[in-house]
Amino acid sequence: MVETATPEVSPGIITGVEEESKSGLEPGFLVICWNDPVNFMDYVTHVFQQVFGWPRKKAEFHMLQVHEQGKSVLTRESMEKAEHYVHQLQRYSLHATMERDQ
Amino acid sequence: MKIFRAGDKFIFEVGSREKHLLLDVLRLYPLIPAAHHLEKSHRSPDSSQKLLDEALAEQRAENKKQIESFLAEPGRFEKTEAGWKFSPSSTELEWLLQVLNDIRVGSWINLGSPEDKLDLRLMNKETAPHLWAMEIAGAFQMQMLEALKG
Question: Does the predicted TM-score (pTM) go above 0.90?
Fold first, then answer.
């Protein structure tokens, strides 16, 4: 990811979508965003806000996870919803995939 | 180039050269090869991948049509004393961001997907247009993202 200004974010304020859905009985699919050296950090943050409706701080947290750890699990959803999110992220040319949560 | 937010609209004030640059770079869409998404999505289940690819192909065709209409629409750009003005809606700005990012990422792929900064000494007649498109698309994107941040 191409660095722009690094935001200050606190993981403590992030409420994980993953936590909410893990309590569900339905097997889930993980939506994962992978790092690449071309997309701007601000762009990735903006896309997360648009696609998931997240506040900027949460979007920045996941963007930094992608940047620093190579990937971020963005959400855990049913197959249909996961497909929808992957499609939305790919529309913005982000490297996004889904995989079954095991 | 200056971009202001005015309600649901964004007002772009561009010089004549910037206007030509924007239109020239938009004409390059799409640049990301369809196979690129296939390679990237290898982790998605096979059953869903076909649908995702079809949806993406439809989206790109729709974007291409929108660009053609954007470029051809009379009155899209209004002449001002300092240059030109146009006012995309929030939805159009999102679409412009997607299109410009396709051009930026596609140009990067055409340059061989370099991990680090490009060695400018390796530039030649074949690679220079890709670097130009990547940098110009990126410059417009950054201005738009700044405007969106407010």
Answer: no
Q: Which chain A residues have a beta carbon less than 8 Å from that of B40?
A: 34, 90, 95, 97
Closest alpha carbon to A58 in A66, A67, A49, A47: A49
Cβ within 8 Å, pair A32-B56? no
Residue B73: inside a domain, yes or no?
yes
The answer as to whether B16 is a domain residue is: yes
| Cβ neighbours of B145 in A, within 8 Å | 40, 42-43, 46
Range of the domain at B31: 2-37+52-149
- Partner-chain contact B44 A99, CB within 8 Å: yes
Q: Predicted ipTM?
A: 0.87
The tokens of A28 are what?
């889930």
B85 assigned to some structural domain: yes
Instruction: Compute the distance between CA of residue A87 and CA of residue B106 in angstroms, rounded to an integer.
Output: 18
Domain membership of residue B45 (yes or no) is: no
